[in-house]
Design goal:
By secondary structure, the chain is α+β, with helices and mostly antiparallel strands. The chain has 13 helices and twelve strands.
Length: 491
């Protein structure tokens, strides 16, 4: 089995879905946690550097790792003494000044030195109101909290100067700790993107796989039978392909069985032709007219029954290919044939379906009522005209036989078309007629009439071949209606 065949297995797809989901969730979690850990490490380094910086400024030791100290030039120091920090040469423009003084609150000496820090940024003014409140009286902890805040909210252009007590002002250069470039990459968004992409890919694959099953289920659920020689498309996962091939094989066996049955019945009908002819010749020699007529009627029933079964079997085979026809023209032609023979068959005028006015983005308000098309519709359908002609003729014959009159009408929607045959009134109920759809079932008032109980069965079979139904209902005038509904287009 090739790679594509291996991947087409539903079991393999399920395993891959689980693996992809696990890897994607694991990778996203790793990226998220790595980013969070790196960020906390970065902030901790900045905080530790701030803590060490305080003692460096106070005691004069070496600068902490990542920080470089350099004294302000005398002219710049003079500006800092007066608080004109924005006038410093290296001050960013525009200048947002954050100035804070930190002192040891526990030292009761009146001349306790203070640490003065001026932060000049082009885009951020840092909050310092709660530094010593949150950090306690320890100025080193306050400076550590300040550097942590500066690392958290980095500035694109930053100048920091500080001095302890009356010592010289120092320029604090800590781009390796406090600049935006020093901040670790935030991988949380890529983690979410990875998870989202994996989820989209999984959902798309699941939806694509499920669509094959849904399409096949819809095809099986449709009433329209496949024409002779056609089969369901083979597509989708391997397991579904196996099911589709099994269904196609079953349909092929059914077609072969029906064809064999039709061949057998055709042979029987042909073989009975000669004996039936001899029987008719012999009955012609019978002088008793009543007996001769009864024998002829029995012979006709015998041959007619075989022909009816053969017709039913051929209708099940559905060998006639569907084609696009005008259903209105077909109904008019059948009704005209009965009228030419003097049968009481009437055809009701066809009324095209009304089109409702709906609003749009350009005309949200409806104006007027529904619109009836000016041109008469031809009611185009994809159907088997010979089969529909037979079904319509059977229904009209039943209406004439048991209701003395047949009124034919046609109704259509965008997806279906219904042929309605209403008789002149009979005592047969809709439930009784529905039960008579079964083969060889005849109504109580048809026991002495012609027919073999296959007419409605053939009509129902033809309706099913066209994706439709045959149902019965009581008409407005008291007659019984037979409603033959078919799909207008092949599914």
């Amino acid at each position: 089995m090739g790679a594509s065949g291996w991947l087409s297995s539903l079991r393999t797809r399920g395993i891959l879905w689980v693996l992809i989901a696990s890897l994607a969730s694991g990778g996203a979690t790793w990226l998220w946690m790595s980013s969070a850990t790196a960020w906390q490490t970065h902030l901790s380094r900045a905080e530790q550097a701030g803590l060490a910086l305080y003692y460096t400024l106070r005691d004069g030791g070496p600068a902490p790792t990542g920080i470089r100290l350099s004294p302000l030039p005398p002219d710049q120091a003079a500006l800092a003494e007066t608080g004109a920090f924005a006038a410093l040469t290296d001050a960013p423009k525009p200048t947002l000044l954050t100035f804070v003084t930190l002192s040891d609150k526990t030292d009761a000496r009146p001349s306790t030195p203070t640490l003065s820090v001026a932060i000049l940024s082009s885009d951020i003014r840092y909050s310092v109101s709660d530094l010593q409140t949150a950090s306690g009286p320890d100025p080193a902890a306050s400076l550590a909290r300040l550097t942590r805040n500066m690392a958290t909210y980095c500035s694109k252009d930053l100048l920091v100067v500080a001095r302890y007590g009356d010592r010289p002002w120092q320029v604090i250069e800590a781009s390796g700790l406090l600049s935006c470039a020093a901040a670790p990459n935030d991988l949380r968004l890529p983690a979410l993107a990875l998870l989202a992409l994996a989820l989209i890919a999984l959902l798309s694959s699941v939806a694509e796989t499920a669509s094959h099953f849904q399409n096949f289920a819809r095809a099986l659920g449709r009433r329209r039978r496949l024409p002779d020689g056609e089969a369901y498309d083979i597509s989708g996962p391997t397991e579904l392909r196996d099911i589709q091939m099994a269904v196609n094989a079953y349909l092929e066996r059914e077609r072969a069985a029906l064809a064999q049955r039709a061949t057998m019945l055709s042979g029987v009908s042909h073989d009975l032709g000669t004996p039936a002819t001899r029987l008719r010749l012999r009955t012609a020699l019978i002088e008793n007219t009543d007996l001769r007529e009864k024998l002829d009627a029995d012979i006709d029933k015998m041959t007619g029954m075989i022909e009816s079964v053969l017709t039913f079997t051929r209708s099940e085979l559905s060998t006639e290919p569907p084609r696009l026809i005008s259903l209105l023209s077909l109904v008019e032609s059948v009704a005209a044939d009965y009228q030419d023979m003097g049968q009481p068959v009437t055809l009701a005028p066809f009324s095209p379906p009304e089109i409702d006015r709906t609003g749009s983005v350009f005309a949200s308000r409806r104006k007027g009522g529904p619109v009836t098309p000016a041109k008469t519709h031809s009611v185009l359908v994809a159907a088997r005209p010979i089969s529909l002609n037979r079904a319509l003729s059977n229904l009209i014959d039943n209406a004439l036989k048991y209701g003395r009159h047949a009124q034919v009408s046609l109704k259509a929607t965008s997806s279906t078309a219904s042929i309605i045959i209403e008789d002149g009134g009979s005592d047969v109920t809709a439930d009784t007629l529905t039960r008579l759809i079964a083969p060889f079932k005849r109504g109580p008032n048809a026991q002495n009439g012609d027919g073999f109980g296959l007419g409605l069965t053939i009509v129902a079979t033809i309706a099913e071949q066209h994706g439709g139904t045959l149902r019965f209902e009581r008409g407005l005038t008291g007659g019984m209606r037979a409603v033959l509904t078919i799909e207008r287009s092949p599914a």
